[in-house]
Amino acid sequence: MRANLLQQTRMVAHAVNVPSIQRLSGTDADIENADYQHIKEQLTSVRLSNPKGRFVYLLGRGADGAAFFFVDSEPSDSEDYSPPGQIYEDASEDILGMFDIGGEVVEGPLPDQWGTWISALIPITDPQTGSVIAVLGMDIDASDWSWNVASRSALPMGLIIMLFITVGTVLAATTRCVEASPQPVLRRLLPPLMAIVVLVLTGTGALLWKQHQEHINYNVTAKVEEKISNLHFSLDQQAGDMIAVTGPMAANALVQKALRENDSASLQAAWQPVFEIMGQNSKLAHFSFLDKNRVCFLSIDAPEKCGNIVNRFIAIKAEQTGEVVSGMELGPLGTFTLSVVQPVFEGGKLLGYVELGKEIEDVLQRQRSDSGSHLAISIRKENIDRKTWEDGMRTLGRDADWDRLPGSVIIYTSQGRLPDILASWVDHVSGNLSSNGSSMEIALDGRVWRVSVMPMQDASGKEVGALMDMQDITAEKAAFEQLLTIGEMIYAVLLTFLLGFVFVLLRRTDASIRIQQSKLRASEEKFRLLVQNSHDVIYTLDVNGVFTFLSPSFNTLLGYPIEQAIGKSALSFVHPDDRSRCADFIRISVEKGEVPGAIEYRMRHTDGSWRWHSSNGTGIRDEAGALVGFQAIARDITERKRAEEELQETNRLLEEATVRSQALAEEAASANASKSEFLAHMSHEFRTPLNAIIGFSEIIKNGMMGPVSKKYAEYAGDIYGSGVHLLSLINDVLDMSKIEAKQLVLKRIPLDVSQIIEECVKMTAVRFQDRKQEITVDVPENLPLVSADERAIRQVFLNLLSNANKYTGDGGRISITAAYDAPEKTVHMDVKDNGIGIADELQVLVFEPFHQSGTMLAREKDGTGLGLSISRKLVELHGGHLTLSSRIGIGTTIRIVLPVEAPNEVSHPQIADIPETTK
After folding, report:
1. For a designed S-S bond to 634, which of 253, 528, 537, 688 qualifies (C-beta 3.0 to 4.6 A apart)?
2. In the 8-state DSSP scheme, what is residue 373?
3. Does pTM top 0.85 for this prediction?
4. Cα 334 to the chain's mean position, in Å?
């Protein structure tokens, strides 16, 4: 089974186009990539065509050694979808090792975040370098795998069991029967048991046939897969041989000169002999030189092609990449051609291209001769031009019957003319082939053939035709028919033997009925003892709720004699408050014909107390299936109910404590609001003396009232710097308090944010120059005006630029971008740096007042930690929002989103303007 899974995965791996994988980046950008979409369609098709497979995926390995997903078979809206670049954290050491040493792996059962799987993995290599570029994996659910193993073991296990039964039959037939009358059971059970035996043996034969067919399919599939693998290997090898020729040609100074000077004559003279030699030795069929615009400059094999522009995929790919490109394409004759296009550069300047090509028929002929089977290739008509193809086939001396098939043409067969029945079938299935292909069994000329059809793709990954393989399975079929004949003989003998066994078995069954009756009486005695010694009450009721049986526990738990309770209604013992509920329970049970579940109620004790009982039961039916009563078990749950009541009281006390805690929290919030309102009113009292200190210290420092000593000037400078720093801190605290006290009003005007950004950058330019930091601004000129308070928006940008300056190292980069979102009618502005970044767990906290990022560098910076908090609140007062994204060591991006039109909400009453400060 593991070999079968590995083979299926290998076939899928060969169907994936290697150049398409090489054009993937393993990032979100791949989602829009046509190569990604094509590979995803292939993997999805494989997943849907194999009901046992759960996931099909393509893995890559990053520079850090971690495995990641290139593409998977899941739809993008599935919860199990893995986007390009997602790290596969559960990749085993075997999977990671495949990228270094290759090799095929089947592992499992192994668990990951999606489940437990049996996984087959095949490396996909670069045909030119031999290095592993990706790993294709296919997962099967471990539970499905276990069932599959069990199903494959069913036949041998069944045969072993049948052998033991046979031995038991012989032993039973030789044992003396007890006195009994077997005829009733024998007459009633012998016919159906005989039918069962016949069905079992027939099913066994069908299973053998199915396993034989699976065996043939497995062998044929393995051979086809090996041929395809060998074909790809041969094509890659020959492409490598041609690349080995084109490389030195592109570096040849004479070739470069001829392309530069448009000298086709010298190229013709120099390379015509080479082409003739390679045509004889390597079957080279095409040799051309193209100029830098892909126009055929010289075609040694077909001079009439000169002047034609070459628009084939490989040439275009070589133009796009500037590298040598190889692959299989539909050639000018309508056949498959293996082509190599080598760019020619001189001093880094593109001069043109060298193109070599050869037909693949000689490779196919070697494949056929090596394997002993027949091969054929068909091309869909929509991919070729009729006249060109017919001319090409006549040139090659082949049958050019375009009208033979409606959708395809046959371009190659290893057996001469392909029989009409096969040609029609290939034409029918080639238009809708899955990556696993299609197969059928057919008899031709007295032999049995297994015919398989696989899709053929060109270098771009497009399916343009089909490859057909015919394998002779006549010998295998004959061997199986011989085995089937022997099996039929064994079947007849075994059937006779089993019928005898069934007869003896039924006879002994009748004879043992009386023995079973005596055992039943013993069992009833055990049941009686169980009822008498049970701590729970076991009882039965009729459909009216009257006791018909009570176990002794009824007397133990409630004190009533059993004789007094039998024949009385069970409701007469139930608490008045529970009586109607119990009556409804009995009524619903009678109406539905079954007990709906358990019920709890109180029963009266002889001492006058009430005991809680929980009862559960089932219906009693007569031979006709009619409900005649109920049998149930009742358990005393009085202690449990008492514990529940105590728990409810505890919960009530907890709820009261919660209410008190909420009240205390509201008092704390009120106190905080009072604090904020007080600080907002104290703005003038705080700032006035500080402004005086700053002003007088600046006068002394600058000697404006007369010269002072150098020492006093230094002291005055220290006082001035401390005052300015303290004023900045107080401004931050007062700004936050004013906002929290809701005493800020916005003076909205139509505002050009690009002008504000330009002014803020000029105001802070010195800071960035001192630290040799680069700051760039990319703001469109046609941004709409926003309705905003000019001072508030200026303060937001100054705060953000100050933070970017402080937390970005010397020589760092800061960028400011803006854009207009027309559907949302908002302007987006981003301030991005490549500084120290903020850890994920701290990104929410940085917007809390008085909080800084927590890094060592952040603690060395001055400030209150209010800059981001004030900026966010100012943006939110405008009806916008401010968000942050950051990664440690990568940098931080702050996004401001402002509505173009003012929101309908009314701003808070104004007490003071917003001071313009730089944090």
Report:
1. 537
2. S
3. no
4. 41
